[in-house]
Amino acid sequence: MWSRLVWLGLRAPLGGRQGFTSKADPQGSGRITAQVIEHLERLALVDFGSCEAVARLEKAIAFADRLRAVDTDGVEPMESVLEDRCLYLRSDNVVEGNCADELLQNSHRVVEEYFVAPPGNISLAKLDEQEPFPHS
Amino acid sequence: MLGRTLQEVSAALKQGQITPTELCQKCLSLIKKTKFLNAYITVSEEVALKQAEESEKRYKNGQSLGDLDGIPVAVKDNFSTSGIETTCASNMLKGYIPPYNATVVQKLLDQGALLMGKTNLDEFAMGSGSTDGIFGPVKNPWSYSKQYREKRKQNPHSKNEDSDWLITGGSSGGSAAAVSAFTCYAALGSDTGGSTRNPAAHCGLVGFKPSYGLVSRHGLIPLVNSMDVPGILTRCVDDAAIVLGALAGPDPKDSTTVHDPINKPFMLPSLADVSKLCIGIPKEYLIPELSSEVRSLWSKAADLFKSEGAKVLEVSLPHTSYSIVCYHVLCTSEVASNMARFDGLQYGHRCDINVSTEAMYAATRREGFNDVVRGRILSGNFFLLKENYENYFVKAQKVRRLIANDFVNAFNSGVDVLLTPTTLSEAVPYLEFIKEDNRTRSAQDDIFTQAVNMAGLPAVSIPVALSNQGLPIGLQFIGRAFCDQQLLTVAKWFEKQVQFPVIQLQELMDDCSAVLENEKSASVSLKQ
Hints:
The structure holds two protein chains of two kinds. Helices cover 33% and strands 3% of the residues of chain A. Chain A is mainly alpha-helical. Chain B has one domain: Amidase signature (AS) domain (Amidase signature (AS) enzymes), CATH 3.90.1300.10. Chain B has an eleven-stranded mixed β-sheet, with helices on both faces. In chain B, helix 2 runs antiparallel to helix 3 and helix 10 crosses helix 13. The C terminus of chain B is likely disordered.
């Protein structure tokens, strides 16, 4: 129960702060608004769970901000250390498969050869309406 | 027999001095005795004994598969093993039994190695202490060594013996503890930011990180696809080379493995002299946080090379101070993407909520992941937001290129191998380690090791000497991309010079008939 109070307490001061700005603002980050929290939770489908987690994120962002000091003009981003090499593709022959039974074994909810999922077009409940979850 | 090197045991097996079954049983017995170390999550006793039986038949018929036939090995629990639970020390995968073997595991099995079990780690390999998994922390065998305990008795402030046990380092701590405590001859770890070299340094082992693209990542549950590599932990360099010889090579199931011809098998020549070698010492690695003991050993190692005729140069890797930040951004971003596969539908933990897919996924992930993992996922998602993508993720990718170029420049200036510390200090007590959170610790402990992952270079941590407290300290050698053989050759020469002492765990071995043979005396040329 107290976690819900924590959330309400958290949102009040955050709601009063400057909203999260676009990349045009050099000071940009460091302000985690309630909208950002909600947005991240929906994207990640992982919840913060506590104020400490939000504080940790803020510290992580502050840490990452140190990158601004590096001059990267004219530098191309590096995606892989093997960028100078060719990617090898396998020939298009079927060599394995037919393992439906093995794969189905690891799932908790299966019907015949289907993985069973709950209904899909219901968006995650907004913070306000969510059941307070136990503090992890 | 258990204290011997892989090479020696292999020879003993071939000569019939011992059978694979006897060896397997000795190791299993020792695993039971050392259970308090918490190195293993799953001990695959039946599997190992069956493999031992088959190996024995092969030896009887004179058809051994090679140097690894009948050799007990352990595998970190983030490698998929068919029919054997693979958990990544997380609730998310507790009870998950993969239907396939990771390529590296399959290669070991094809060579006849005996799989002793799956070792403990930090949850999803995120951490530098092997303390954050759901099965509990791993204890460093050196906490129970004669060398450490004798020094502690001399210390008037020493507290109760067991409450002050030391961490193994991470995240492949379980693998390191398993090899260090003689329960197996080699273990697989994974190395994304130093996760193999860090525990190797703390546990007095050789921890080898191959070049990115040399060893297949298929079956290694990914953390950071562009930096992960399977790592090898052994007690000496020759053993690591034997294992590497079995594992290296292109894999059609991993498109990031290179197809260049490699010299196989990895037989390491013995370097007669190092006068043609050029060793680079990166000056930016000399930071105030480095302990004086490690600094002194580093300097003595450089002097050793100099005195033997090698050229020792100071080099500069100017972007070193940004590498940990860059790693932090790239790692969390890739983690955010890689962890998205855990939704409870096809495998792994699944919660009871059935209202909607999103609610189910969210609750499953909340229940399945610990704070560390969730924190990284959320940070990663933040850096990948549209408004942050350029400023954080792409920026970090650019900085990555600068860091990789630093290394290229250093090697182009004539340097063959770089010599650096592996860790800031020796292993610390667990109670000390947990005073800071996971992210802070990782940022501190990975400082010397993770730039190597960003550049995809091979690196190896070699145990050098014992600290004043009787604990191992290791130094790191970094080589050019795909020059793994040259790197290991230099490391082998160095290992021979320093003669690192064998851990004395006599009390544990008392009942076993395996007394430590071939115990090297502590004739250390780099004495403190």
